[in-house]
Every structure is written in C-alpha cells, then in structure tokens.
Amino acid sequence: MSLARRLLLAAPLGFLAGWAAGALESALVTATSDLVFADPLLDSVEVAWRYAVVGAVLALLLSLAPRRLRPKRPAAVLGAVLGLIIFVSGTSWIHQHFYGGRPTVAAGPLIANGILAAAALALGFGLGAVRTSYAAALLLAAAGHSGVVVTAAQPSSSKAAAATAPAGTPNVLMIVIDTLRADHLGCYGYGQDTSPRLDALAAGGLRFAAAYAQATWTRPSVASLMTSLHPASHLTNDLHARVAPELQTLAETAHDRGLATVGFSANRNVSAVFGFDQGFDSFWTHASEDLNSILRFTTWERVLEIGRGFGLFRNQQPPSVAADVTDRVLAWADGHDGRPWFAYVQYIDPHGPYDPPADFLAEIGVEPLDREAVAKMDIHHGNKPWPFFQVEDADPALVARLVELYDAEIRYCDREVGRLLDGLRERGMLDNTYVVVTADHGEEFYEHKQFGHGQSAFEELSHVPLIITGPGVRSGVVDQRVELIDLYPTVATWIGAAVPERIQGRDLGDLIAGGRRPEPSEALITNIKGYELCAWVFGHEKLVRIELDGKVVWQLYDLAADPGEQHDLAADQPQRVEELKAELLRRRLDSARFRLERAARVEAGAIDSDLRNELQSLGYASDAEE
Length: 626
Hints:
41% of the residues lie in helices and 13% in strands. By secondary structure, the protein is α/β, with parallel strands linked by helices. Residues 288-318, 596-611 and 621-626 have low confidence and may be disordered.
C-alpha cells in the first residue's frame, strides 16, 4: 500500500478513535462528579473533537512508522490509537486523583498503571481484530455521549428569598483581591506607591494588622471565607473539588435574610462549576461558560498545548483585567432594584503572569516582562512544599523585575477598586454599606527559594490584608490576630441573620468595637493537596508540620525576632517543638470536626481543556498541581 493511501486511511480512523475516547472520558467525568455544567452534551462534543484531532495525528504518526512497527490492517490503527489514548488518559487520572498530581515512583501507581496498560492494549488489539471495528468505535462514542446526558448533574433550582430584608438592613460589599500580599500595601508599611486608594480606605476605617487566610491558594481559602470552616472540614482542597451543596455559605445566609446576592469573580477557581454560586441570585465569572465548557477532559494537556501552538486549540479566554470586573459590577448597580444587597467581588490581577495592560505600564513607566527569561524559572504553583523542593539560583535581577510587575498589577487593581467605590458612591449605594477588602493569599518571590503560592505557609503567603469600613466602624488598627473564617459570622451579625452553628470563625464585633480577645491570639493555616501542611501561629511563634510521602518535617519560627522566617528553630529547640506538638494536633483535629459524613469523600469533579489551559496559564493544573 502506498504511503499516500496509508495516510488517507489512517487519519479518519484515528479521528474516530479519538472521538470515542473523548466521549467515553466525558461520561466518566460526569458519572463520577457532582459538578454542574451548563451544557454537558455540547461540552462532551467539544472534548471529543479535541481528542479526535489528537487521534488523527497519532494515526498519521503510526502510518509513518517502520513496517515492522506499524499496524498491519487499517482497523488495527483504530484499535491502537484508542488503546494508546485510553492508557495515557487513564494514567493521568490515576496520577491526579489518587496521588495529588505529584511526581512519584511509588509501587501503587506503578502497579495501577501496569494494569491499565494491559487493559488498554487488550482493548486496542481486540477492537483492531474486529471487522466491524468502525461500527464498534461509533457505538462507543454514542455510549459516551449518552452517558453524559444520563449522568450529568442537574443544576439546583434557584431558591426564592425566604423573607424580605427589614428596612434599614445594611448592604455588604466584600472585595477579595487575589494574590495580594499585605506587606506590599502602603497602609501595611510598604515603601512603594502601590495602593493609594486602599490606603485611603484604611485611613478612614479599621485595618487589621494580623489577618490570616486559612489556606495559601484560592479554592480552599475562599471556601473557608464563604463557609467559616477550616479546609479540613469543608474539604474543598484541590483542583477536583467543589464546595459541597450540604454546606451553608455566607451568600445563602444573606439570601435567606432577604438580601439581593450577587457575585463577580475574575478567577475561574471561584465559579459556579465549583459550587461558589450557592446562595447567589447571580454569579458572573470572567470567562463565558458558553464559550468555555466546564469539564476536565484534559489528560492530554501536553498534546493539546502542542496543538494550540499550531492554532488548533486557541484559548478563547481573554485576559482578565480589573476594569472588566469593575464595569460588570457597576452595570449591575445601574439595574439594581433598591433592596439591601450582598455583593462578592474578586479581582485577580496581582496573580501571575504579572501582565498589566500595556497602556497602564506606559503610564507608570514600567517595561513589560521578558517572557522568555521568566519561562526558564520554575514559577508555576504545585511544587512540593518547602523544604522538599526549592528553585536553584534564581537571577536576582529577574526576581526584582517580577516584583516590579507584581507591584504594577497591585497599583492597577487599586485604581479599579477606587473606580468601583467611586461609582457605587455616585449611585448612592455606599450609604449604609459595609465594605470589606481582603485577599485569598499572598505570593512568594524567592524569599524561601520558591515562587508563586500554595506550597508553604510563610507570612508572605498566609498574612493577608483586611480593611473594614461601614456603619459604626471606628477608624484605627487592630493588632490582634484574626482569620478569614471570622468574616462570615461578622457579616451575619451586621445584617441581622442567625449565625449558623456549624461554623468555626468568631464574630469580629468585639474587636471592631475596640475590645480585645484573650491572648495569645492565634491562627491556623492548612494546605491539603497530595501532602498536608498545617501551620499554627500563636503569640510570637509559628509551628509548622509538613507531611509528604510519609515523611514529617517540623519547623518553628520566632516571628518577633525573625519576621521573615529565615531561621528555623526546630533543630535548636527540640524540647519546645515537643511541647507544642500536642497543641497543634489538638487544633488539627478541631479544625476537622465538621468534616462531612460522606466517608471524607471529596466531590471529585472535572474541568475542560479551555479551563485547564486557563488555570495552567495562571500556574495551576500542571503535572504537580498546587
């Protein structure tokens, strides 16, 4: 058979094999996930199309292989491609779902992958030997799409407000600025002019000098803010997890009180697909879900990235900028019906890749980053936690440039937050309104030999800004330690709602009124994602426990003498570490006391290639997810 004929026969066979594999994986995702998708059937068709292109490319490559290596019959090409795709996809599923996405050579995944390889080869050779292999592949594809329709979770019907909010109920505007370090704001002592509008807000309100996030990456941190639960209780701890429908959220409490509830998020980690729309009358995410399906069928993300390089799979997600978020909120304000309201607004601009709008950079005289130089550095999130991993010999000049662009992103976002507040004030919507500004986590810039976030609990990641203004809120500074889980009961009290029993935060009302809490004030930070990191901050000390692959590391820092956490005292003070271990264990157990009674099952979900590509562009969803 001539080469041209082999290629003409192979391409459609590979296309069909890839389509069947994509449809089957789509069904697997919807069958094992509680995530809700806008149009699961259409999404599965898009996924199947992408896999079909991959299948066609693989079939062409097989046809170009030496005679002794390539399939002897056309049908065998279809079987070989299908088996290969299923093997690679299945390997990724095992890697991501059972081993946290971290590189590992443990016996478990090796054995599982071996079994999968044998099954995939058997399927491929079996299908390739069948005369009706074409029809069999079509039936597999049809079964996959049918499975999507049958097993896809249905959206819950929107719940009508149980009551009308009483006259005089205050409004609440909660602004979360993604990846914003407290120590890079002027009001927290930073020497650069990054935050004039936030500084002015803090000067007229109450600034919390020692606020802490409960996790150091977005999904679990915002879940803690919304549920007033520690990550060990809400279980929204990895890229496969969503906020469980059984959990009561702050938005649901506001909704039940009769407030209009609206959400605006520039980070797709905080979106309806991951359950963050619970309790909101409407929840806008920067990317249109009509254009970007919300399933994760991207175990071939590396291949798809190559395809994108040729323009086959262009990411339709436009760059997320603060101006778009502000415009959306103000557009909502123009049509608001006058009821008391709760609005959640999340900006993302300080998050990598530190790429403010070109006109803004020109305005402030800052040059864009050299992307080729940055690509040589390991800046993505998902590295093993410190001290199990570190980036070697980062260029100080390049680190300084990263910080310069990060600061520019803060300045740009600060301007847009100011425009949002001005716009609401002009519309009369800041009267009788509490404004809360905080962050989900900070960012590392090689202070501890890593970049990004999610892999440690050092102060540059866990210490976040918190500024509150509103009716009866005094101006000043609270120096006692508080946590983001404290915001839920605080807001509930403001709007006159009952505070749920199953929460772990404490109302900030006593501190806002000028009182004090018993010392030492403390905070707990937890990352659970393929490893467990738990940091307990109390008084002037921080005790950290990190467990990875059965190995436990303890760290101890004196934040008064060493605020930059450069000197681990665990080796020098083993007796002090032993004294504190039991206390940390007690707090770890207490933080998990509201774990759902579902055999500790995280609601594993999936996201599609567009969403994975977007998350990967932000540093998530790599081979070692953060």
